[in-house]
Write a structure and sequence with these properties.
alpha+beta; 22 strands; oxidoreductase
Length: 418
């Protein structure tokens, strides 16, 4: 088939690799003049790592990223541990790999270039015209191509998802975050952990080791401070030194990080929204990644969900003879995994980012205590790993043997089709 993919982020690049390897004629369309990554750091969970392994890219991403074995959070005032999630609570040697978004983008982008998949840049896709075939239309009204299928991987600002069977737009969440990518500092920080500090649910500070943005680069950390986007200007107006003093007051060891910030220009303001397309498809249209579903980053599943969507769509197109049947199969394969984590994100986010006084009290007392009692540690680890609902079996994949992979990360793919 002739397939257009709108968006050259992780979802679009992974879909391009899968569909090209399946023999389809694929063209990527990107609104930037040069495809670039957006954002700071993320954790690739065992689900997303399985997809990269299946694509033959695990060794490359593991060499750039930082292995993560636990997520640990403490109350900034009392020092009490209120979050302690360890992958070892699960069987199979699971772990995460924290990466700079530039590293994930670079690994996928280089693979696309190696395989000669064409990328048309500087094109802002505005709408979709569907008849016997599908055509794209840019913001200048120019009609582009004749395609059997269009894949919308254009992210949260998608203009194509309105052509889905049941279109839904994201609703802004109250809290976002300041993000920065900084030089890694060893003293006082665990190179294999996401560390966080909380003051109720209004302040959350995090430090995540993310390895290198590119081969040969310096080791980096993603640093973030949660806040309401509506408050960002007030924080800036109060001055950088006042903000730094607040950070250090909550977490003195972060002095080494905030001293690297000379201007608010080094901080990116992330805004989050929540939406889920009931059916991530329309006529000759598949919607994947953040265009299909978005939420708070609290459970850290965004990029992993995008990679799973790409694999699921490719599997459905292999399994079904018609596009209509394939799109229905794709939607079914991803439904329960996506809906489960969207629901869980809605449930957990207010405990960590909200104006509530009661919820953080419950988090720090009742929930923190209950989380240490079996089987809670295993359940929490499965939530973080993205495996509490199996997303792989329905798309023809099995998880890698992570114990073997950890010993030989550049070795052959061990994820196999059912």
């Amino acid at each position: 088939m002739s397939i257009a993919i709108a968006g050259a982020g992780p979802a679009g690049l992974a879909a391009a690799l899968y569909l090209h390897r399946a023999g389809h004629k694929v063209t990527l369309f990107e609104r930037f003049e040069k495809p670039v990554p957006v954002g700071s750091g993320l954790i690739l969970q065992p689900t997303g790592l399985t997809i990269l392994h299946d694509l033959g890219l695990f060794g490359e991403i593991a060499a750039l990223g930082s292995r993560i074995d636990r997520l640990h959070g403490t109350d900034a005032r009392s020092g009490r541990t209120v979050l302690d999630v360890r992958y070892r609570a699960l069987p199979g040697g699971r772990f995460g790999v924290a990466v700079h978004r530039a590293a994930l983008f670079g690994v996928l982008y280089r693979a696309v270039l190696r395989e000669g998949i064409p990328i048309e840049t500087g094109i802002e896709i505005e709408t979709l015209d569907v008849g016997e075939v599908a055509a794209l239309e840019d913001d200048g009204g120019r009609r582009i191509g004749s395609f059997d299928l269009v894949v919308d991987a254009s992210g949260t600002r998608s203009k194509l998802r309105r052509h889905a069977d049941v279109p839904v737009e994201p609703k802004p969440l109250a809290y976002g975050a300041f993000w920065a990518s900084l030089d890694w500092c060893d003293e006082g920080f665990d190179a294999r952990a996401l560390l966080q500090r909380y003051d109720r649910a209004r302040v959350m500070i995090g430090v995540l080791p993310i390895g290198r943005a590119e081969p040969g680069g310096d080791r980096m950390a993603a640093f973030f401070w949660s806040l309401k986007p509506d408050d960002a200007e007030r924080v800036r107006a109060a001055g950088l030194e006042a903000w730094k003093a607040r950070v250090i007051d909550h977490w003195p060891e972060c002095t080494a990080y905030v001293n690297q910030i000379a201007s608010f220009d080094q901080l990116s303001l992330a805004r989050y929204g929540h939406h889920t397309l009931p059916i991530p498809a329309g006529r000759r249209l598949a919607v994947i990644g953040d265009a299909a579903h978005s939420t708070s980053p609290q459970l850290g599943q965004g990029a992993n969900m995008a990679l799973l969507d790409a694999a699921a769509l490719a599997h459905a197109l292999r399994e079904k003879a018609s596009i209509e049947d394939a799109l229905a199969t794709y939607a079914r394969a991803r439904r329960w995994h996506i809906r489960s984590f969207q629901m869980l994100s809605r449930l957990f986010t207010p405990f960590y980012q909200s104006d509530s006084r009661l919820l953080p009290f419950m988090r720090d007392s009742v929930v923190a205590t209950a989380a240490r009692i079996p089987p809670a540690p295993r359940i929490l680890a499965a939530l973080v790993a993205g495996t509490i609902v199996d997303p792989l079996r329905g798309i023809g994949l099995a998880e890698a043997d992570w114990n073997r992979v950890a010993e030989a990360p550049a070795g052959p793919v061990t994820a196999v089709a059912d």
